[in-house]
Specification:
The protein has 16 helices and 15 strands. It is of the alpha/beta class. It binds pyridoxal-5'-phosphate.
C-alpha cells in the first residue's frame, strides 16, 4: 500500500479533531445569527466574543483589536487598502518588499494603478529585508509599511521588531505612518506579541494552523482608522460587514489555543527539518539550500536540485505518496516561476529545480526517513533523463 505523507503544511493543514469538535455544535445546534436578539443569537454572540478574547490573548492584543474575516488574503486587502484609503489625503506612498505573498503584491499593484506609489524593497540572496534600505525609502508621503513576518516559500523571518521601532520613532514626529505585517506563516509557529513586534496591523489565517479554510483575522491596533472594504451591516465594529462565520471563528480560536500551547513542538520540527537538509546534502550532489540558515521558520525547507525539473520531482514524489510543493504558483492553468526565488537572485534554471518541504507538528522522523529513502533515486533518474544534466557533467 502506498504511504500518504504530507510535507506541504505551508499550503494548508488538516483540521484537528479537537478543532472540528469545538466548531461542530455551531454548525448544527447553536446556529443563531450573532446579531439576533433572541437566545439562539445570544449563544452565537457569546461564542464569537469568547473566541475573540482567546485569539486576542494569543497575540497579546485587546479583544476589541481583532477583526474576524475570511482569511489571510482578505486580512491583507483590508489592512493595505483600508490604511491607504484612510490616509489618502496625507500621503500616497507604500513600502513593501519584492517577495510578499500575492495577496499583498497584487493589492499594492492595484493601488499603483489608482495613483499610489509603491516601493518594493529588495530581499537579497538570503531572503531578508535590510532596515537601511527601508530607512532610505521612507519619505514624508509614506503612510504604510507592509512587510511579511515570514516568507511562505523559503521561511525567512524578517526583522519586524526593528521595523516596528523605526515606525514608532517616525510617529513621534508625525502620526500618519502605519506598519502592517502578514503573519500568516508565523502565527502558531513562533511566539507573537503585537506590542513587542510594534505592528499596527497583523494578518492571520486559520487553515495554516489546523483550522478550516475560509477563516482568518486582522489585528488592528486601537485608534487605527481603516476604510472598510465591505459595505453592508455593522458587524465587526463596522470594519467587516457580513454575518460572522461563527463555526469558523470558534475553530480559529481553538486552533490558536492549541498551536500556542504546543509551540515547543517546533523544536522537534526544527530537528526534522535540519535532519532532512543534512541527509539530502549528504546523499544528493548539486543541491542548494535556499534562504538564510538561521533567520527562518523551523518548519520550511526550500531546496534546489540542480538540473532537475521541480514539477517532475513533485509528481514522482506524489506517486510515492509524498506531497511537497514547487515554489511555482499555478494560475489559470499555466505555471509561473517563483517570484520569491527570483527576488532572491536565483536564475530560471535553479528556480525550475526547487522544492519546498513544509512540516507540521504532526510529522514524524519515520516520514522524513521514508522521504530520504526514495528521493535520491528519483533525483538520479530524472537527472539521467535531463539533457541539462549530461551537458553539465
Ligand atoms: C504569507 C501568506 N499570506 C497570505 C496567504 C493567504 O491566506 P489565505 O489562504 O487564508 O487567504 C497565505 C496563504 O498561502 C500566505 O502564505
Amino acid at each position: 500500500m502506498t504511504r500518504r505523507i504530507y510535507f506541504d503544511n505551508s499550503a494548508t493543514t488538516f483540521v484537528l479533531p479537537e478543532v472540528a469538535e469545538a466548531m461542530q455544535p455551531y454548525l448544527t445546534e447553536f446556529y443563531g445569527n450573532p446579531s439576533s436578539v433572541h437566545s439562539f443569537g445570544q449563544k452565537a454572540r457569546a461564542a464569537v466574543e469568547d473566541a475573540r478574547r482567546k485569539l486576542a490573548l494569543s497575540i497579546g492584543a485587546d479583544p476589541s483589536e481583532i477583526v474576524f474575516l475570511s482569511g489571510g488574503t482578505e486580512a491583507n486587502n483590508l489592512a493595505i487598502r483600508g490604511i491607504a484609503q484612510a490616509q489618502a489625503d496625507k500621503g500616497r506612498h507604500i513600502i513593501t518588499c519584492q517577495f510578499e505573498h500575492p495577496a499583498v503584491l497584487n493589492t499594492c499593484a492595484a493601488l499603483e494603478k489608482q495613483g499610489w506609489r509603491v516601493t518594493y524593497l529588495p530581499v537579497y540572496k538570503d531572503g531578508l529585508v535590510r532596515v537601511e534600505d527601508l530607512l532610505e525609502a521612507i519619505t514624508d508621503e509614506t503612510v504604510l509599511i507592509t512587510i511579511m513576518h515570514a516568507n511562505n516559500e523559503v521561511g525567512t523571518v524578517q526583522c519586524i521588531e526593528e521595523i516596528g521601532k523605526v515606525v514608532r520613532e517616525i510617529r513621534l514626529q508625525r502620526r500618519n505612518i502605519f506598519f502592517h505585517s502578514d503573519a500568516v506563516q508565523t502565527f502558531g509557529k513562533l511566539p507573537i506579541n503585537v506590542k513587542q513586534l510594534g505592528v499596527d496591523l497583523l494578518s492571520i489565517s486559520g487553515h495554516k494552523i489546523h483550522a478550516p479554510k475560509g477563516i482568518g483575522a486582522l489585528f488592528v491596533r486601537k485608534g487605527v482608522r481603516l476604510v472598510t472594504q465591505s459595505t453592508g451591516g455593522h458587524q465587526e465594529r463596522d470594519r467587516r460587514a457580513g454575518t460572522e462565520n461563527v463555526p469558523g471563528i470558534v475553530a480559529l480560536a481553538r486552533a490558536a489555543e492549541l498551536a500556542v500551547a504546543n509551540l515547543d513542538a517546533f523544536a522537534h520540527i526544527r530537528y526534522l527539518r535540519d535532519y532532512l537538509e543534512d541527509e539530502i546534502s549528504r546523499l544528493i550532489p548539486d543541491v542548494l539550500l535556499n534562504g538564510h540558515r538561521e533567520r527562518r521558520l523551523p518548519n520550511i525547507s526550500n531546496i534546489t536540485f540542480k538540473h532537475v525539473d521541480g514539477e517532475g520531482l513533485l509528481i514522482s514524489l506524489d506517486l510515492k505518496g509524498i506531497a511537497v510543493s514547487t515554489g511555482a504558483a499555478c494560475s489559470s492553468g499555466s505555471t509561473e516561476q517563483s517570484h520569491v526565488l527570483a527576488a532572491m537572485g536565483l536564475d530560471k534554471e535553479l528556480i525550475r529545480g526547487s522544492l519546498r518541504f513544509s512540516f507540521s507538528r504532526f510529522n514524524t522522523l519515520d516520514e522524513v526517513n521514508y522521504l530520504i529513502q526514495v528521493l535520491p533515486e528519483i533525483v538520479e533518474r530524472l537527472r539521467k533523463l535531463s539533457p541539462r544534466w549530461s551537458h553539465a557533467r
